[in-house]
Amino acid sequence: MSPTHTLWENVFKAKRENNGDILPLLAQIPLFARLRRSELRDIERLVHRRLFADGEVIFWEGEPGVGMYIVQQGEVGIYKEYGKHGQKELARLRPGDFFGEMALLEDDCRSATAVARGETRLFGVIHPDLFHLFRRKPQLGVKLLSALTDVLARRLRLTNQELQRLAQDTLTVETEGERTP
Q: What's domain 22-179's superfamily in CATH?
């Protein structure tokens, strides 16, 4: 069974059909769900389509991030490098999931490596194209940045909950260790 993690998967995901048309897929991604059809068409014109072979790296941890990806077909493994402790799979993303959205806000390095698992088709939206659209259509920019804020706030809440759970688990282990003769 592959690991999944709510911080990486599309936490708003509902069951969806995948007929190859990008508009229905875009409409179900939280970043684009509030957009009108004409606004979705504006986004569709920005989308880069890429096909990756099994095991092909989509991006490496530490390299500059330039945009986000949406899984149309196949799977993507998200991996974190832990030095001498090796690499750990953090999540397995499936059609309708999205990742790399932080690169739409900041010019920083990727926090993990993304690898295609099986033949994988992705849609990509890159930062420069999106912000060029925002300059032409500021209201669309406000809508998308508001939706991005919602997604990031949700993921931050989930991260906080996970950290609290880990802290509680650590406290429980330490407390039980004090009782052991």
A: Jelly Rolls (2.60.120.10)
